[in-house]
Amino acid sequence: MSAERTGEVILEVKNISLRFGGVRALTDISFDVREHEVRAIIGPNGAGKSSMLNCINGVYQPQEGSITLRGQTFRHMNPRQVAEMGIARTFQNLALFKGMSVLDNLMTGRNLRMKSGLLAQAFRSPWCNPLGWGGAEREESEHREVVERLIDFLEIQAHRKTPVGKLPYGLQKRVDLGRALAMEPQVLLLDEPMAGMNVEEKQDMCRFILDVNDEFGTTVVLIEHDMGVVMDISDRVVVLDYGRKIGDGTPQEVRANEEVIRAYLGADH
How would you write 225-258 as a 3-class SS string? Predict the structure, then answer.
């Protein structure tokens, strides 16, 4: 992506340190993310990549530092509050509802945007509401339209009623992406979205990530081990090693960084 297409800083991570007892998972990590860019976080296993995403989306509470989204700084936020601020997340290990259909899994991503309370939802029952009146039904119909558009976008129309647990792994990852997109996030955090995929599945996922970034204008932060993927689709890359930042820049700059080469990429890159 050209520099002209990336905007101002939308997310800033500043001096984040995270400890578990005496173990330092992250030490004084700072970087920023610009609007509409694809920002990659790379590093060896145990470098602190997933811990960093967990700090951003409120799963972990860092002991030091702060995270700022669109000028609003937060230090102690839970995942729901972070989601309400516009940050969605997929996980390395799928957390889908395997017995539910693709459509219903994506509908769970709309929960934060549903205004109808439990009482209104109850009135959807034909026993309570034989005439079908009430805002809850209309609201669900509107949310379903959003989900149906995502199903078309992700090219999973043929599987919309299929229980997710019966789908191939690559399609399950696509559903996981769709559920996060259903939240209409400003920033999308992807934790190894291509882990365990074959070459064709990776190509498809790369295409969808770039389309999400281009068509929806969604800012993407991703962890990925496949360096070919990282170099092909990322605007900028931050490199972690043993919980410390050792590199930050364009893919070309990172590829030429001697410390990164020693720590991660290897001398043949």
Answer: CCHHHHHHHCCEEEEEECCEEEEEECHHHHHCCH
Q: Which two tokens stand for residue 205?
A: 């996922």
Cβ contact 240:41 at 8 Å: yes
pLDDT tens track for 1-50: 444 456 899 999 999 999 999 899 999 999 999 999 999 999 988 899 99
SS3 call for 64: strand
Can you give the pTM of this predicted structure? 0.85
* Two structure tokens written together for 119: 């009482």
Spatial contact of 23 and 63, defined as CB atoms under 8 Å apart:
no
| Cβ contacts of 134-140, under 8 Å, gap ≥ 24 | 139/114, 139/115, 140/114, 140/116
Query: Across residues 142-166, what is the average pLDDT?
Result: 92
